[in-house]
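REQUEST FORM: STRUCTURE PREDICTION
Request ID: SP-0412
Submitted by: Lab K.M.
Chain count: 1
Length (residues): 282
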Amino acid sequence: MPFYNGALGSPYLSMPTPRNPSPAHSPRTAKAAPDKSAATVAMGWLHTARFLTTAPQLHFLPALDVPEIAFVGRSNAGKSTCINTLTQQKQLAFASKKPGRTQHINLFALGKQGLMDAVLTDLPGYGYAAVPKQDKIRWQQVMANYLVSRQNLMGIVLMCDPRHGMTELDEILLEVIRPRVEEGLKFLIVLTKADKLTRSEAAKILSITKLQAGGGEVMLFSATKRQGIEDVAQLLWKWAHPPGKALAATGDVASTAQGVETEVEEEAEVPEEGFEDQAPTP
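STATUS: Completed
RESULT:
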């Protein structure tokens, strides 16, 4: 309110002191943008996945010098759903209407467009009863040859439906890759469709599978409940980008099969064959 200042001889209104000094007198320190979380980086990296090439046999695959991570599993174990969920793409991996009909090895490039710092490999599903035995044996041999001899293979992701547990063919696959795992090959068992388990069932199958994994890692995964997605993504990122080791990106390899429609196994419940086949030989 007005007051009289005798020194000046005239009344005037007092001016309130501003509570917040202007920036000119008290500059604020700009906050640095927070670093992206490890999960954000990993998910963004996986989202760059795009089709690279497809091959019916190992010798048709291009020789690559970037890390390769292979997805493998029994038919209808949820492999294509897992790949599509991790890469945040609805149809990167296609589900065939004829389970077990996948006969090709499908490669997907990862990294910024025009560059490639890793590859995801979608291997044929196995264990479907309706496929002729001769074809099953041939496909198993193709997979075994790939898993044993692919030079740049850095890690393997085995898809397993936890309601059925590890099957005999899954255990055969573990035996095939065991020598390479002992030499440092990374290995992960993903228990898909975890949303169909109770909490106690999930804990039990997780414990059992860890004992069967032989040193590999085991994670629960559900595309429906969004469970385990970021955990798997971060692990794959770490595999392809080991600390202290710079990995040079390379240009995308020109595919001789561009435009070829790829198909992966049907993931609906289907009957499974007996396990009369012998272990695939490299």
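NOTES: Strands lie at 3-5, 10-12, 50-55, 68-73, 105-110, 118-122, 153-160, 186-191, 217-220.
Reviewed by: T.R.
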